[in-house]
């Protein structure tokens, strides 16, 4: 074994006649300019070095290579370009073996596909996730993957962005073998020695025969195109991926690479790419709240949940799924039995769908304990209260928790609106109290608002973030106000929608417009799904403190008074005959809306889709600016993440404030001022929005501050 000087982020080492190139660029060996240069130089030098017979590529640390360096996107490109590095690897006159472990994603997999042979260790994850960033694999991936694995497998990987395991990759021919052991370098060296002993030379993917069955390949491309048109509506890069694979079938390899490059550059320039990359980094940034730097989390070994309703059961499932033991407390045996049944129901459904086996369910339920006495929570490290949304009830629960919880236990409330500081004051230990606002269904929805009270201790907050990490949730730090970040802003844009309803738009038109923007559902479909009774209770609670100058639209109340709470009652804004999951428009609802317009003395007017969206989004952005100004959210990106992960805001638009920057703040402000001419109380421009627009800045300037 001989050492040689490292090429920047790529170290080279000789093992007899085999050169091992180790990509060592923490945290994930992304292909930054340094790495590309190091690889290109080393490959070139190896060509003229007679002592080198073969080259092995490995990654240092936990991964092979996680892909192109996403931080470089949008900056001036630096040579060498990744496609050139891949082509140089493929052109090597000496066999190149890629030894994969951990993540081999995006450009990382493209490097491996350009190598001549591939071995992967068990647990390696192979994928082309560029679609999630609004891109396509731009370093030969769209041309080499189908040549190696066939068009169907290549399109599946590239359109879903999912990670494939080694068995699947082997069955597709994406890798040649699965290595034994846990040492990628050893597996690569073994393979290289074997190949040299056999006298094997370079075997180039450009010559592979995965597209030889042309009719089958064309059928796979046609099917993918149809799927993209029906399911990935509004997205830019999926259709380009299909175009690139068509080029792989129709064009010689080098021409196909040029087509891929042109399509890649179109994607790179698209606003969707900028939005999706913003979302990628924003989601990682929200996990780094100041308290996580100031303090270490407390232990999290035993958890408690109070309440076995929909939320409590969902939270318990999320915890059980994360491998944590959970004690659920309910008021009496009957309620506890219902709570346990709700937990089991979630698992039974998964078993029915084949996503969990009976042993998996048993293993999770073995960690579940039910109790009807608070004393069962005496040794819990963290307890989440998920009882009825009523201040007096919550105060009573926290007084009990204060009595029985061990010193240092974190006491969390899952309230959606209520004042955490009042709840904390019901205990003798307000430093241990915080809000953990889960979203329904709590075992599925990614968002977790971590609500920090005036007295929450930094290590209490850090423990909330640690819980989110264990549960694989996306945590966002929020301050205390009515509705925190998400529900507070939602209340305002929902109000904007209700105002349009009274002024002449139908709920169906509004839902259509919001879906056309990219949301999976419109606000009235969501209301029907969530159940109108919840919003009704909130409106009644707020009635006494409502600003009398604000218009109050009574349409939702008229439906609730009839018991039309949405899907669960068979009708709401829509009709759900015979338990249907998708609703149909209801003429009676339209008649009620008409009557309400008359009662309010409103002459209905027409709204175009654009009118609807301008109002809906301006209301959202304006209230978001208020939330920022008051410090309820730390940065604009925190608000973006709340709406992306909890409220269905289309990811390819990057979140409401990234979107606002793209539209331009002066334009949004001009809209608000125009709407204010009619209704100055509702449409009051946020001082922060005015300040940013007037000084020519965007919200993003506050992300970087
Ligand atoms: N470029 C730059 N930084 C990256 C990165 C990338 N491709 N992938 C991850 N990182 C950074 C993260 O931002 C994070 O940084 P901070 O610690 O400063 O926040 C750090 O690496 C660790 O990332 P995670 O927290 O996500 O770590 P994890 O262990 O949970 O996951 C991973 C690791 C599976 C690799 C995950 O990071 C991931 O999926 N990364 C993105 C992979 C990807 O999309 N690759 C394709 C890139 S596009 C491409 O390659 C285009 C092309 O063909 C030219």
Notes on the structure:
This protein is an alpha/beta fold and 705 residues long. It is built from 30 helices and 20 strands. Strand 3, helix 1 (33-47) and strand 4 form a beta-alpha-beta unit. Helix 2 (82-91) packs parallel to helix 3 (107-114), helix 9 (237-250) runs antiparallel to helix 10 (253-268) and helix 20 (507-517) packs across helix 25 (609-629). It is globular and about 85 Å long. Acetoacetyl-coenzyme A is lined by residues 27-28, 30, 63, 66-71, 82, 103, 105-107, 110, 129-130, 133, 135, 137-139, 141, 284.
Short description:
It contains 30 helices and 20 strands.
Name some characteristics of this structure.
705 residues, alpha/beta, 3 domains, eight-stranded mixed β-sheet, binds acetoacetyl-coenzyme A, 6-PGluconate_DH-like_C_sf, Enoyl-CoA_hydra/iso
List the helices and strands and how they pair.
Elements: E1 2-3, E2 10-15, E3 18-23, H1 33-47, E4 54-59, H2 82-91, E5 96-100, E6 103-105, H3 107-114, E7 117-120, E8 125-127, H4 141-149, H5 151-160, E9 163-164, H6 166-172, E10 177-178, H7 184-198, H8 214-231, H9 237-250, H10 253-268, H11 271-285, H12 290-294, E11 303-306, H13 310-321, E12 326-329, H14 333-352, H15 358-365, E13 368-371, E14 382-385, H16 391-404, E15 410-413, H17 420-425, E16 433-438, E17 447-451, H18 458-471, E18 474-478, H19 486-503, H20 507-517, H21 523-530, H22 532-542, H23 555-561, E19 574-575, E20 584-585, H24 587-600, H25 609-629, H26 636-646, H27 656-663, H28 665-676, H29 687-694, H30 700-704
Parallel strand pairs: 3-4, 4-5, 5-7, 6-8, 7-10, 11-12, 11-14, 12-13, 14-15, 15-16, 17-18
Antiparallel strand pairs: 1-2, 2-3, 8-9, 16-17, 19-20
Acetoacetyl-coenzyme A binds at residues 27-28, 30, 63, 66-71, 82, 103, 105-107, 110, 129-130, 133, 135, 137-139, 141, 284.
């Amino acid at each position: 074994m001989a050492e040689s000087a490292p090429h920047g982020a790529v170290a080279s080492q000789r093992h007899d006649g085999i050169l091992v190139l180790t990509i060592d660029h923490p945290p994930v060996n992304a292909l930054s300019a340094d790495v590309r240069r190091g690889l290109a130089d080393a490959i070139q030098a190896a060509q003229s070095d007679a002592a080198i017979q073969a080259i092995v590529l490995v990654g240092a640390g936990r991964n092979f290579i996680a892909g192109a360096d996403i931080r470089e996107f949008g900056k001036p490109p630096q040579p060498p370009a990744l496609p050139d590095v891949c082509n140089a690897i493929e052109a090597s006159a000496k066999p190149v073996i890629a030894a994969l472990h951990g993540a081999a994603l995006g450009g990382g997999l493209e490097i491996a596909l350009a190598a001549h042979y591939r071995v992967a260790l068990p647990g390696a994850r192979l994928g082309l996730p560029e679609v999630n960033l609004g891109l396509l694999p731009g370093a030969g991936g769209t041309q080499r993957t189908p040549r190696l694995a066939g068009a169907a497998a290549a399109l599946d990987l590239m359109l879903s962005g999912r990670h494939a395991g080694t068995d699947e990759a082997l069955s597709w021919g994406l890798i040649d073998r699965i290595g034994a052991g846990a040492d990628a370098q050893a597996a690569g060296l073994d393979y290289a020695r074997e190949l040299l002993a056999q006298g094997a030379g370079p075997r180039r993917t450009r010559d592979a025969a995965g597209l030889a069955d042309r009719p089958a390949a064309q059928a796979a491309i046609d099917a993918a195109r149809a799927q993209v048109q029906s399911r990935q509506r509004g997205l830019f890069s999926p259709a380009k991926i299909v175009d690139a694979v068509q080029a792989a079938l129709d064009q010689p390899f080098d021409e196909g690479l040029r087509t891929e490059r042109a399509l890649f550059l179109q994607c790179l320039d698209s606003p969707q790419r900028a939005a999706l990359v913003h979302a990628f980094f924003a989601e990682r940034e929200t996990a780094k709240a100041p308290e996580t730097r100031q303090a270490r989390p407390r232990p999290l070994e035993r958890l408690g949940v109070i309440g076995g309703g929909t939320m409590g059961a969902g939270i318990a499932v999320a915890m059980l799924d994360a491998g944590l033991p959970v004690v659920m407390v309910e008021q009496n045996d009957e309620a506890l039995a219902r709570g346990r049944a709700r937990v089991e129901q979630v698992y039974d459904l998964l078993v029915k769908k084949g996503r969990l086996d009976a042993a998996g369910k048993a293993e999770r339920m073995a960690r579940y304990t039910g109790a009807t006495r608070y004393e069962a929570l005496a040794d819990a490290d963290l307890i989440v209260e998920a009882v009825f949304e009523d201040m007096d009830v919550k105060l009573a629960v926290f007084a009990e928790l204060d009595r029985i919880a061990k010193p240092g236990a974190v006491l969390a409330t899952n309230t959606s609106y209520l004042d955490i500081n009042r709840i904390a004051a019901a205990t003798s230990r307000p430093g241990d109290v915080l809000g953990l606002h889960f979203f329904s269904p709590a075992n599925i929805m990614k968002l977790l608002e971590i609500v920090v009270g005036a007295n929450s201790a930094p290590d209490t907050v850090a423990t909330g973030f640690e819980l989110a990490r264990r549960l694989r949730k996306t945590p966002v730090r929020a301050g205390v106000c009515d509705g925190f970040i998400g529900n507070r802003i939602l209340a305002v844009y929902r109000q904007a929608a209700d105002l349009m309803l009274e002024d002449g738009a139908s709920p169906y038109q509004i839902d259509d417009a919001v879906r056309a923007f990219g949301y999976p559902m419109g606000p009235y479909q969501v209301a029907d799904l969530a159940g109108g009774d919840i919003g009704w209770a909130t409106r009644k609670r707020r009635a006494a403190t409502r600003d009398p100058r604000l218009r109050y639209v009574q349409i939702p109340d008229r439906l609730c008074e009839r018991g039309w709470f949405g899907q669960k009652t068979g009708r709401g804004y829509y009709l759900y005959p015979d338990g249907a999951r998708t609703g149909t428009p209801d003429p009676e609802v339209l008649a009620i809306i008409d009557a309400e317009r008359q009662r309010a003395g409103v002459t209905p007017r027409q709204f175009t889709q654009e009118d609807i969206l301008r109002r809906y989004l301006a209301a959202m952005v304006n209230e978001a600016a208020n939330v920022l100004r008051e410090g309820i959210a730390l940065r604009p990106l925190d608000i973006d993440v709340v709406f992306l992960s909890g409220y269905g805001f289309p990811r390819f638009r990057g979140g409401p404030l990234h979107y606002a920057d793209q539209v331009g703040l002066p334009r949004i402000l001009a809209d608000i001022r125009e709407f204010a001419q009619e209704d100055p109380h509702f449409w009051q421009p946020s001082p922060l929005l005015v300040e940013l627009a007037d000084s020519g800045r965007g919200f993003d300037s506050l992300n970087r501050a």
